[in-house]
Amino acid sequence: MRKPFMITLLILCIELALIPMVSTTAEATTADTGSVTPAHGRLTDGGYNIYCRSGEYVTVDTYPSLRSVQLTFPDATRKVFHVENKGSNQITLSVEDPYSSTGYSYVGIDSSIKNGVALKLVDSPYLWDTYIEHDSDLIFSLRPPTDVNMFVGASGGKKEPRTKIILWTNTGMDAAKHGEFKFEPVASSVKAPIADDYSFANLTQTEGSVTPVRIEQKGNRSTGEVTIMYNGSTTLPKKAGSYSVTFDVAAAPPAWEAVSGLPGGTLVIAPKPSTAKAVGQVIRMGGIDWKVLDVQDGKALVLSDLILENRMLNDKSNAFNEWAGSSLRTYLNDEFYNKTFSKSERKRIVSTALLNNINPEYSGSLGTDTKDKIFLLSAEEVNRYFKDEESRIAYADRNAPAIYYSAVNDGAKNPYEGVYQKYASWYWLLRTPALNDESRVCSVDPYGKDSTAANNIEYGVRPAMWIKLDGGGFKKYKPLSFNKQPEYFTMEDMVMAIAHDIIHVYNGDWVFKWGYGARGPAVEKAEASYNTIPPGYTYSFYVFRMRCWGVLSTKNFDPLAEATYGQFKDYLKKTMDWNKKYGAGGASAFTLTDKILAIAEKRAGITDTRAKAKPVKKEIERLCQEILYWLASANDANTKRARIMDMPTKTKYKVGQKFDITGLRTVTGSYGKEKNVNNKLAFTTSGVKLTPGYKFQTAGKKSITVTYGDQILMTYQVIVE
Predict the structure, then answer these.
(1) How far apart are CA 691 and CA 524, in angstroms?
(2) What residues does each domain of the chain span?
């Protein structure tokens, strides 16, 4: 027992510690252990790279569980420290921190002050006493605040205030070289966001500098160009090899290039107007897709391409159906207008005189004419700009990128929890009052037919507006195409991943949906909406939805809200492995998940599994939106149906129509008059089976009719082995 006790005692005796104490007057006047040359005036406010005398750069790890200061080699990526000189030889050091509520944190000490104390990131400003070391204008020592009086007990050192202590980083006691650091001024590291408004970047680097200034993309510009102006001119000063300016707003984030060697000045980055202005095109404004309905005298009438939210026409007490006095009119021309559009975009929106008559099919006039910037279409305008009912069908966007957009519920007001409902058709309101009923207003129903809606019940909102084209108009906005951009899935990828059963022809149209619960009856509830297919989806896509998307849904992702990307991938892998163990999904589900994760990881710029999972979640959501948007596109729909289902592309199929699958897949098994198709209808390549709930019926010896309840979905001509 004696030996361990002596070792412990020895450790206690040699422990380095700085013990706070009350200083005497004599102690306060004693010379410091190092140089006491004031640093005030030498370190000016600005950005600095900091490295210790060994030549290793000081950097930080902003990951929440670490928040530590560390060292990297000179060529390693490092963050710029911002110095703010507070006077009296005191400074603060701050650094960008994505995990901080303010966006930055301070370098400080969050524990007792002693030799070997670690530098950490702290939330509040931490004052450092700074003194010049070795007669250099660049090498400084960082010391605890002047109001802390202490002595180094173990070393027999000094007891004076401002005594230099040994600072640790996460690499050990010697790393910080006794608190001596070299500050290297850095040219401004300005991030100039590319938003929907002008962006300014004040450059402070000196002429000839080779340190880059970052220009970072920010906003929703999927296509288009930008104008870069330097000191009021689009012509940048030519200095061969000293700088370059390139910017691709279509690139995956982080999309920025370096601007090096510019003299101090102002860099202005703004959207460049494009030239297209044809009716039917879709343009982007305020982060929203708008369809061009009309072009007149340098102006365009545009309508939101999707239903943006659910709202009442009038939520006021004793409300009537007049547009002029409606709460929706007030909201669209105030909150929606101001919070959705940038300052420059608002300048392009024209105040328009509106006629607010009753439905034009009837005589008479009802309602007060108004002058609005944002409005709903009238019944007359719908009849004028939409040629048929199909073109009037509008779909709900629960994930619209602008402000205050809500999820759209079904007619029974049942929320689709955990289900992506972007392509669920829905009612949308018009501003025209209904005839002989002061409580109703005209609307378009989910089938594109004329309808009316109660003014105090929430229905879909598709804002409209007239905008100036400014001579240039807008470049056509094109949804991302998966068969053109190499980072995305190819058509063949989608054939294998989506397989056959997710797509069915139903009432002449087709829309993708999947359930939010277990397969079978629980799915029927989710599918009980307009113009959608019954729940026939492949196990592979089902597994992806339930295991990957389910983890990412708001409801299920909450427990992992603060998870790292590594934790999320591990959680997802475990759920997918469980599925594989019990035979659900097949290999295509896991291939699809890996592909989406890889692309989302690249887009989010994730290089460290310790990073937050939320950016990847966002990119996965966007990818899934793009996949479904592409697959559900009306353009050349029959060809896409055919290719995805491996059918001949020249053939068009309708509900109940027979088609030959000879040579395409071999259907095995024997069929009775009516049996459950589960484990009966199998395509040999993918092994995909129809979802339980579907049945087949023989219709002659060479055909199978697939039904769901009383609804005939498809009749296959087959070769029965």
Answers:
(1) 12
(2) 2-40+52-72+107-179, 282-468, 491-643
Amino acid making up residue 67 = R
Contact indicator for 490, 482 with CB cutoff of 8 Å: yes
Phi, psi of 73 (to 5 degrees): -70, 160
pLDDT at 463: 96
Q: What is the pLDDT of residues 363-383, one digit of tens each?
A: 334 567 789 999 999 888 898
Grouping H, G, I as helix, E, B as strand and the rest as coil, residue 302 is: strand
- Helix, strand, coil share (%) of the chain residues, nearest 5: 20, 25, 55
8 Å CB contact between 19 and 153: yes
**Closest C-alpha among 414, 690, 417 to residue 529:** 414
pLDDT band of 214, cuts 50, 70, 90: very low
- Alpha carbons 315 and 189: distance in angstroms, whole number: 49
- Quote the CA–CA distance of 497 and 482 in Å, as a whole number: 13
Token match 């950490």: residue?
120
Q: Which helix (H) or strand (E) holds 568?
A: helix 565-581
Residue 199 tokens, joined? 């962006």
pLDDT of residue 577: 58
Neighbours of 483 (CB within 10 A): 14
**Strands 352-354 and 658-660, bridge-based pairing:** unpaired
Report CA-CA distances (Å) from 685 to 489, 666, 668, 714.
Answer: 20, 9, 12, 20
Other CB atoms within 10 Å distance of the CB of residue 238: 7
User: Whose structure tokens read 């605040």?
Assistant: 145
Please provide residue 537's backbone torsions phi and psi, each rounded to the nearest 5 degrees.
-130, 155
> What is the pLDDT at residue 462?
93
* CA 178 – CA 164 distance, rounded (Å): 8
Q: Are 543 and 589 in contact (CB under 8 A)?
A: yes
Q: How many helices (H) and strands (E) does the chain have?
A: 16, 36
Contact by Cβ (8 Å): 91, 84: yes
Distance between CA atoms of residues 220 and 249, nearest Å: 9
Helix (H) or strand (E) holding 219: none
Q: Which residue has the higher pLDDT, 711 or 304?
A: 304
Query: What is d(CA 475, CA 464) in angstroms, rounded to the nearest whole number?
Result: 19
Question: How many C-beta atoms surround the C-beta of residue 672 within 10 A?
Answer: 9
Mean pLDDT across 500-504: 28
DSSP tag of 396: B
User: Which residue is associated with the tokens 């990307």?
Assistant: 565
Detail the DSSP E strand segments found in 384-493.
428-433, 440-444, 450-454, 459-461, 464-468
**pLDDT tens-digit map of 327-346:** 999 999 998 998 888 777 78
Give per-residue pLDDT as tens, 238-275. 433 333 344 333 333 333 344 444 444 444 444 444 44
Q: 327-357 burial string, b = 16+ CB within 10 Å, else e?
A: bbbebbbeebbeebbbeebeebbeebebebb
Q: DSSP assignment of 127-170, as one string?
A: -EEEEE-TT-SSEEEEE--TT--EEETTTT---STT---PEEBT
The radius of gyration computed from the CA coordinates of the chain, to the nearest angstrom, equals 33
* Gap between the Cα atoms of 602 and 488, Å rounded: 11
Q: Are 682 and 689 in contact (CB under 8 A)?
A: yes
Residues 584, 540: contact at Cβ < 8 Å? Answer: no
> What's the whole-model pTM score?
0.35
CA atoms of 102 and 120, how far apart (whole Å): 17
